[in-house]
Each structure stands twice: as structure tokens, then as C-alpha cells.
Amino acid sequence: MIFDDIRIMRGPNMWSGKHQVLAVKYEPSLYPETGNAQYYGVTEYFRIHHGIEHSDTDVSRSLFRYTIRLAALLQDRNFHHEIIDLPGDRSYGIVEYGTEEGGTAALQTAGQIISALITGVEPASFLNACAYIASLNRKFGEGPSTSIITQAARRRNIPVSKGPAGYLILGQGKHQQRISAAMSPDTSSIAVNIACNKAATKEFLESQYLPVPPGAHTDQVSDLESIAENLGFPLVTKPLTGNQGRNVTCSISSIEELTEGFLYAQEISEKVIIEREIAGADYRLIIVGQQMIAASKRSPASVTGDGSSSVAELVHQENENELRGEGHENRLTKIHLDAATDAVLEKQGLSRISVPAEGQRVVLRQTANLSTGGTAEDVTDLVHPYNKMLAEKAAQIIGLDICGIDIIAPDISVPLSENEGAIIEVNAAPGLRMHQYPLTGTPRETGDPIVDLMFKKDQNGRIPIVAITGTNGKTTTTRLMAHVADSAGRTIGFSSTDGIYIGGHKIYGGDCSGPQSARTILQNPTIDFAVLESARGGIIRSGLGFDQCDIAIVTNVAADHLGLKDIHTVEDLAFVKSVVPRAVHQDGWAILNAGDELAYAMKNQLKCNVAVFSSDDRHENFVKHMEVGGTAVYTDPEQDIYISHRQEKIYICNAAEVPITRKGKAGFMIENLLPVVLASYLSGFPLEGTVAALKNFIPSGDTTPGRINELEINGVNVIVDYAHNPHGLKALAGYLKKIEGYKLGIITGTGDRREEDIIEFGRIAASMYDEIIIRFDRDLRGRTEDSIVELLTRGIHEVDPEKEYNIIPDTQTAIHHAVEHAPKGSYVVVCADNATYTLGLTRAVAEQFQNPA
Questions:
Q1: Tally of structural domains, the chain
Q2: Where are the alpha helices (DSSP H) in 559-646?
Q3: CB atoms near residue 427 (< 10 Å)
Q4: Residue 316 domain-assigned?
Q5: CA-based end-to-end distance of the chain
Q6: With contact defined as beta carbons under 8 Å apart, do 315 and 321 qualify?
Q7: pLDDT tens digit string along 94-150?
Q8: Mean pLDDT over all residues of the chain?
Q9: Which of 276, 307, 330 is the last residue before a domain boundary?
Q10: What's phi and psi for 667, nearest 5 deg?
């Protein structure tokens, strides 16, 4: 089974309330012809193996439904899945995922199983497929300790994201904290180095007279005899820098065994620790922020004989325990038989094929690590205060904020000073699973204390986020909002269609209005305020790059990019863009355009506060909103700007005083300005500072590239504007109507737009320009030059059959020709999808006229 397009959602999206879902389109043509017998084979497979039946009479659609259901089953029986039907006989399958890699593999595997059933081939084993996908989830998912911490963070509404190199980031901007398993940003690298070196750890603890086993370390076999003579048997050997109990040998009682243990440890590190063995049980105490929060008694992997099964069979039976899984995926780890197991069995006079007596306990490992199949019993309440004090002191001496203290003692409820117990290791990045999910005893919450160590009780690690969407005006609104926030003293990160900016510096150029750019900004550790342009493409592709925002602005919704990515109507487009205001948290604000019916209608989908903006205080939607005491920003007939909030009317300034409005002539710029005024007010910025910032924001090719950028060349006024769709061109026409003079327009048709959109562009151009030049973009996006000319001229001639136009394919040549032949004092208007590039061409033309060859 083939899926043309698997869309991986990583945040709020148009499909589901869940952020981690895959979306695939139902394409009947991808399903082979399926006869009744073949279809019966599929339905029987699901009925017999999974107890699932569908009543869909459309065979290919039913197969699609089975595929989506199977993709969920392969991951987790409780994973969400559904089929979403859209107008126009369009359907999408939605399935939740744990990891992107596992979810994608589940979809592909489900398709392969369905294909095999249709063609009569034996399908892959369901259990084997589940095991494969589980292995991907283990490889790419969070480890158990990390998961415990991130779950605790999410309970406190702290955002969690995956950062570079696999590190996890809790929080955003300057409030973020990075973790690696159970290590925090405050975990000292020097302390980690000490803890990873067992000899150094012992020296530090001994220097403060904490109880540790007598021992030595060496890399020479020749030293073993003298060390054994000094320490006496029994002994333990372990790698100087090992972990998880690897290559440790216990209960050594002879030089021969000591040599074997030494060489075994050297497989991990050249230097080997040799210690006198301490009698007693194995305990792990977790210290967080100098406080013991949990303690476990660990037991090595073992099985109990039944008088008829071999050791290997007993291990197999134990591994069937639903609590055991591979690696760290479950409360317990499956037991694996290997050379280390054989050595332990041999000491007990057993082998894998031995049949232990009924009730006989057979130990399978020398160490009690959970990673090798050991078990844990919670003993937190049994730890003697003296031992608790010793463990906390050990953490302070090594210098770790989070650590595991390993103690061997006959009884942890008795002071170590009385029972010859000792601290045998201090572990950085300790495992939390044994405490959170002990086999017996009380589960202890270990994630919360670690999160509390990084974030105060009243902190959630978030920074304010203003998200901006709409068809036109997004980038200008984004830049203006960022400017006001910067003027208010915030360190800004903002993304738009022309790049990513951090603290006033452009760090990357290009269309950066998608989720990855948002994540880049939110993971930057210097910012404390984010303004994020959120365009349709990124939302369709993978949702939003943040889990929630404080303020969302919807500028407008108009026909653009229709026919692409299954978005065929302006209502479809509005549904996509509504994802942004729906991501506002309950106490936040969505600021909607009251003059735009589709934007205004989004209020019915929202659970947050709703405010509106309007450049017409008599508009029906605006009046209705105000009648119920709604919050709004608007202009009156004199273009005075007011905020109405909680029955208070606040004067801001006159729109004509703000340079971006071109003395109040650019109505669409006023509509970009208004939501920024309100968003700044709701963000708590002082009004006086906001007004000053608006008045000192000077539009130019640098501050607002492609938004009425004006240059005078050879006595001609050249305007470069981003108007690339009918809605944007109409807005520009409204501005040009207020300017007297001859107007020549340089236009093109964007190739991936619908025919009717290109024709409409021609109609509008004919109504606003005295003369027209048709040029072509470098990328025609699937159309020919002839087809673009035909569509544009069809629209032009519908309005004015006598309208003059020229075809000059090259943009720079077209600009040069227009400037050279246009009357002095006239206006040449260049409409450009890539405004920055076109501005560069226009400046090159200016240079040619200033410095003719």
C-alpha cells in the first residue's frame, strides 16, 4: 500500500486536538482492484485476529479504514485514529503516533499487510511488526527517566520540545532549561567527571570520612596478588569508568577468580577498581537538590524453580511477565542469558539446562541493576535518618544536584556506622524508573522534585507568544508587533516570510513562516518575547511550532493558493488559518478582523477571549461585538484610533500620524496597525511607549520589504509591493486611488494559482493602471509564459478591451523600460511575489540611471 503524502503533525493542527498525529489522504487509485474473495480475506483477518469489522460498502474506502486502524494497533491499542470526511468526497486518515519514526513505520507496515492480504500473500507477523515498531520507539523516543521528567513538566504546563543533538528543552526562550536524562543545566560537569571515575569518587568521600569499601585500583595484573593480600577476600572488581553494573564481578575468593574479574573489567576500562566486598543488600537512594526523595532495595535478576523447568525455560516464562519489556519500555527489563549469566550459574553449580528444585531461587546476575533484569522494592520510609544524612552529604561532596547513591548494607534502617555498610558508588544521571515504578512498595514521584529544582512553583518556563496569520498583511503586522515589543524593552525573536530575527539581527533569510522557524526562535536562550508569522503552508504540512500562544491575530482570509494541498475553497483556507486562534490558551486573546466575515466567524470556534479590530466603526460585526461589551480597537471616521476594553474607551493617536499608513491613505496598512495596537495593550506595554514606537517605525525596503517601497528613479516614482493575489492587489488599488498621476503597472501571474485567480488579477490591474507591462517570475510554477499572458489579458480585456499592455519577460528589463518611458512624476508599480529580490533589481535599475555606462 502506498501513501503519496504522509503529513507529520507536531503541534496544534487542523486534524485533531492531539498534537502528535499523522495525516494521510485517501486515494482510491492507490488501492488495487479487489474481488469479493480477496476482500473477504481482509475482513476475516481483522475479525479473527483483532475483533474488528467495518460496514463500509465501498471496498477501497473500507481497506483504507482498515489500514488506519491497523497503523494504530501496531503502536498501541489505545492510540487515537479516525477518518475525517471533507466536502468534495475527500477523506483523510488520522492516526496518533508515539515517535515520528515509529508512527511512519506503522503506517507503511499496515499498508504492506493489507496489500499482502489482498494479493493472497502471507502477511508479516503482527507480533513481529509490533516488536519492530516498538524497537523504533525505544530508539527514537524518550528514555524512562527523561519521560518521567517531561511528564512532570507537562503537568505544570511547561512546554517540552526536542532540541538539537537530541537534548530536550523544558520551557522557552530565556526561561528554558535543558535536560539529558536526569541531568539538569545545573549539573556540574566536574561533578559528573568525578562520579564517572569510581576511584576519584572514593577519594572525595574518604576525604570527608564517609564510609566506603577498602580498595585499590590498577591497570596491572602483577599488582593483583599484593592488593588481595592487603584487602583480603571476598573481593569485587569493576571498571573504573563503567556503569549499569557492566563487567562487575562479585564474591571473588581466589587469585584465579580475581584475575578473571580483572580482565573482564578491563574490557570496559583499562584501570580496574578492586574492593573488599561488603555484605548486605543493594540500595539506591535518590538525591535531588540535596534532599533524599526516594530509596529502593534492588535485587539481581533471578528465577524460582518449579522442579520441572530448566533455567532457560524459567527465564523464558519470566520474560512473558507483562511487566517486563525490552530495554526500559516497561517497569521491568527482560532477562537475557549471556556469558555473564553462565558465570553466575556456574558458581551455583548450575547451567542453562539445569532443572532447579521447586522453590529454589536461582540468581542470574551478580549486580542488581534494573537494566539487566533486576527488581526494585521501595524502602523510602525505612531509611534511617543517619543514612539519609550520609547520602545527602555524599551528593554535596561530589557536587551533584541530582544523583543516585548506591549503598550496600545488611539493613538500611540501621545506621551504617553500626552495621558496617558502605557507600559503593555515586551516580550522575540516575535512573528513576525503579522509584517511580517499583515492583513492590509505594511508587515515589521523582519527576516533580527535579522539575521543581529547575522551575519555581509559580513558573511555567514560557515566554509571551504573539502568533499572526491571515492571507495578506501578516509580515507587516509581524514586523510592527516586533518593533513595538522591542521598544518596550523586550528581547525579541520573530519569524516571517523574509527570515528569522533574534534581538534585531537576521540570523537566516528566506520564507520562515512555518513551524520549524517558530521552534528555532522559541529554543533560542536569549529571547523573552516571540512574534511568529504562521502561514498556511506550514500549518498544512506539520501544524504549529508551539503548543499554545498568548495572543493570535487573524488579519484577513481571502482566496490565495487555492487548489494546492487539497485546499480548494476560501472556506477551506479559513479552516486552516483558524488553527492559530484555536491555539490561544484559555486566558489569552484572539484578535479578529471584524470586517472580514471568515476571520470574524472564527470566534465561534474559540475558548479564549475574543477581541476585534475594525477600520469601520459602523461595520455590522463590529457594532454587534461592541453591543455586548467586547474588547476592540478601531478607527472612527476621522481616523482616530481607540481601544475599548472593559467599558473604558482609550484614545491612542490618529492613524495618519503613524508613518506606515502613508498619512492615512493606505487603508490596508491601517488594518495591519490596529491589531498591533491592541496586542501591545493586552501584552501590558505602556501606551505612551507603544504610540512612540508606532510613530518611529519608518517603512522602507529594510523595515517593510515589499510593502509600498518607494524609490525615485529618473524622475519617476517606483513602488515595489508584495501584492500577488487579487485581495492584495485590491488593497493596493485603494491606496493608489488616493494618489494623483499616471500609473503604469508591472504585473505577472503566479503559476500555481487557479486560472480564475490569474484572470481576476488581470481585471483588477486593468481597473487601476493606465498602462500595463506583463513580466514573468523566474519560477513559472508549472505554467507556460503563453498561458499566463492569455489568462491575464483575458481579465484585462474584460474590463477594458482597449487597454494597452506590453510583454517584457525579464523583470529588471521591464522596470528599466517602464522608468525610461513613463512620464516624469508618474508612478511605476511593480507587483512581486519575491519582494526582496525585486527590490534588488529595482535598485540595480536606479544605479544604471544614476551611473549610465
A1: 5
A2: 570-577, 579-582, 597-601, 620-627
A3: 22
A4: no
A5: 63
A6: no
A7: 999 999 999 999 999 999 999 898 888 889 999 999 999 999 998 899 988 999 999
A8: 93
A9: 276
A10: -60, -35
